[in-house]
Amino acid sequence: MESLKIGLLGFGTVGKGTYDVLKRNQEEIKRRAGRGIEVTRIAVRDVAKARAGLGDDAARVPVDADSAALVDDPNVDIVVETIGGTGIARELVLRAIRNGKHVVTANKALLAVHGSEIFEAASTRGVMVAFEAAVAGGVPIIKALREGLTANRIQWIAGIINGTTNFILSSMRERGVDFATALADAQRLGYAEADPTFDIEGVDAAHKVTIMSAIAFGVPVQFDRAHVEGISALNSIDIRYAEELGYRIKLLGIARRAASGIELRVHPTLIPSKRLIANVEGAMNAVVVQGDAVGSTLYYGKGAGAEPTASAVVADLVDVTRLHTADPHNRVPHLAFQPESLSDTPILPIDEITSSYYLRLRVADVTGVLANITRILADRDISIEALLQKESEEVGAAGRNETDIVLLTHETVEKNINDAIAKIEALDTVKGAVTRLRMESMN
Amino acid sequence: MESLKIGLLGFGTVGKGTYDVLKRNQEEIKRRAGRGIEVTRIAVRDVAKARAGLGDDAARVPVDADSAALVDDPNVDIVVETIGGTGIARELVLRAIRNGKHVVTANKALLAVHGSEIFEAASTRGVMVAFEAAVAGGVPIIKALREGLTANRIQWIAGIINGTTNFILSSMRERGVDFATALADAQRLGYAEADPTFDIEGVDAAHKVTIMSAIAFGVPVQFDRAHVEGISALNSIDIRYAEELGYRIKLLGIARRAASGIELRVHPTLIPSKRLIANVEGAMNAVVVQGDAVGSTLYYGKGAGAEPTASAVVADLVDVTRLHTADPHNRVPHLAFQPESLSDTPILPIDEITSSYYLRLRVADVTGVLANITRILADRDISIEALLQKESEEVGAAGRNETDIVLLTHETVEKNINDAIAKIEALDTVKGAVTRLRMESMN
Questions:
Q1: Shared domain check, B290 and B149
Q2: ipTM of the complex
Q3: What is the reported pLDDT for B50?
Q4: What general EC class does the enzyme of this chain belong to (chains A, B) (predicted)?
């Protein structure tokens, strides 16, 4: 059977990785897919650089800067989009779909923001848009959610889905350094970009968990409803106190089915140290999925890099090869649920979510203040799970004694704890702002 | 669209679990699959018991003892086989295939032993035989290997794929009890069967790793070539010494691509404690897959039980619903590789495998014997990675000093270490047999 012809948009890390893996493992891939899969055309901005990257293959594979011509090329069966961003990538993907071509993309921002438009266009035209590489690199988490766990009512998903921030959090904990130092190290070692905003402020993780929430719960992608908090404000003392209490702090993307809607949030989170996911260190990714039949499952691996990402892109290409002959209305739906069966369950505002909390506060007079704090919490039905009181130290010229108190609460609604915190901060004996972090038992 | 009609063979743990999950989540499943999936006929030996288990549904779903009539029933679209074993199950599965029905099964023994016959019959007839539930319960590891990692040349797989033995090993380590006590506890708690042979002697794990090896490397299932060793001879002192050296002992199913063939083996294995898989405790399962592009990935969850297994069976049913319209020659092949592309790479005899080793020996005179032992190892190019020498203790009426020495070696071929052990055991100062365990760095 004739090889499937791939048009590659972009030849950066992911584009070149895809090219390399397809070429190196072409025989193995053909034994699996039943036919060859070949890159037959490449469109890039920097043609000379791509040609240099292709080496000897430059003589064989046409490279130019005309991406529109590529998606219009009748000799291209599948378009692989590795440009990134939501501008030109969106236009090219939609144009490829209109031309009846299947599309494979690693572009999480594009799908989290414009997913509904893209998937609708693809359903109408009867083509596949595959995006395993958009979440957790080479870990087949999209496939697990969309196909492997279809028997389940998914209850929640929680994932370490940004390697940069996990690398930073690991170094903060293991080496006791502060955020700025850990970030600088990550940048030096190539784990963080020169402008790390998207990673450290949680935006990248929010794109990914938005996509997973849609697949898990059968709702449209709604990035604008996600609550997004990064790790740049995280104090290393909280990592230490959490450790003393038996917890690790991870940046989690969480999607949870609650009684009145869906929680969709990214923030630093305390997790019990004994949980498997708490032990995912460095730039590695892991996603825990809780389903009503299967219970808790976990998927772990490299979340970024040329070859792990290419692994997912090429798996998608093999999937398209295997499944493109299936009746489009029967075939695996883009978001796991049939387009006409998507639900309008609302995404809850962050005030309405339910969580346990870690509170750190600086107090002047422990005995007096503890009674006041516990009363404020009890008035709001917030019970305390654990309390850590550090030895007091002398502060300032007057030699007053001050100390840190750390409280872990049981579950409550977020607006409740915020209300309690406002009251606690108003106490005379409490110095400065209360630090509040969310906590998940992952049970 | 009309519902797909399922004929259920057997109504034990897995059969009833499948029925329950299909019923409870029918709406969610229909939203995903695009059509309903309904059990319309059940065949069991104990009809009265099944009717009792069905409760009110007994009035609606026909139950009888005629399994042949079920697989011949033109109104049944998919046969779910939950009988187990390799006798009648094999006959019924083959008959269903001949009748042009798709088959879903959780029967690892059947596929590990008769897989080639069954898959060939299914390919010839153009039907799907799905078996996600055969390995690691609800964890979609078959899907990950067969579809999620198709870009990769798989290098090795190592899995904790038997919950009973992992539960026993966890209690031996955590509570310091011996094998017999841990087994008795596991039986009392329902984690081990009255006759636990298949689990504790590694046979169940060998069935599962045999299936995974075929999918990973594109070879036929060859259970008779697997090396199978269980945990019943494991001494709790080795668990303790391993712990002191930074290792945990797990019963692993290992399939590895070596230079001259494939290693296929089940045995107790030392793994560095810091590896994620070393921290998989109790009855949980986990599989690590190493691919050349993706690197190391891990899949974790419950490996047994009614609902986790049903989760996989129902996911297979949804898969069949989604994919049965695809061209059979294009569709996902049963063993990941196209039937005509299976390779005849041999499974290596256990003597030919490469591993690191843990050796424990009882010696009378440490100084003299250590020189002898290291020379025996050095003569065979086996280098020592670590050595643990326990304080000596007085033994016997004569009051001689004896002590345990534990050695960890670097990698060598198994016949090499066996040869060295024979020489070591022949030394005067070495008392009794040398305990030898295999060790994997999981890198």
A1: yes
A2: 0.96
A3: 97
A4: oxidoreductase
